[in-house]
Amino acid sequence: VTLCPKCGYAALNQHFKSIGLAQRKLIKEKVSSSFKGVDNDSMVISYDDAILRHKLALLNSVVKSGRLSERGYICLKTAWVLRGKSEHIMHTTKAKDEVIELKKEEKRFLINAYEGFSKAFSEENFPISGMDSDTLAYLLGDIARRIGKYDEAGRWISQVLISRNASSIIKERARNL
């Protein structure tokens, strides 16, 4: 995620420069007007900084009416950062209460990623976030499994397994899942 430390505009690197005038106006009104600024001097980004950047990117995407797939991808990446932070904490401090909260937040972001990607699957043209339909179906199956939607996970994985266009690699991963 790229973040402007002065105005609060944040987006995934591939979307950072693709913002129209109307979207800029919305960002200035709804994000920049209440943004306090962040310290951007460090070359190393902590987990907390990365989580903040991802959440700001999601806020900006919602404000500018970004694509469902963009929001889903930001939610997925945020969940990954939250998972990384919880794994880091478990290996260093073993602060169980904080890990429990991080896991809950990770699941909320995975649920949002699932909802965004599943709607994008039927409403947007492929490729979606750089993925073809089989790769996205596999990803949706894995996310559904992680959030406890096992019937839906099975449906997505079955779609990959019966696809004539799916690569042997993605089919093997689907079988393993």
Give an overview in words:
Helices cover 66% and strands 2% of the residues. The protein is mostly helical and 177 residues long.
Keywords:
7 helices, 177 residues, mainly alpha
Shape: globular
* Poorly predicted ranges: none
Number of strands: 2
Oligomer: single chain
Q: Can you list the strand order of the major beta sheet?
A: 1-2
Biggest pleated-sheet summary: 2 strands, antiparallel
Number of helices: 7
Radius of gyration: 18 Å
Euclidean distance between termini CA atoms: 29 Å
Q: Assess the beta-strand content as a share of residues.
A: under 5%
Order of helices and strands: EEHHHHHHH
Round the mean pLDDT to the nearest integer and report it. 93
- Helix-and-strand structural type: mainly alpha
Q: How much helicity do the residues have?
A: 55-70%
Question: Could you give the topology of this structure?
Answer:
Layout: E1 2-3, E2 10-11, H1 21-30, H2 47-63, H3 68-92, H4 96-123, H5 133-146, H6 150-162, H7 168-176
Antiparallel strand pairs: 1-2
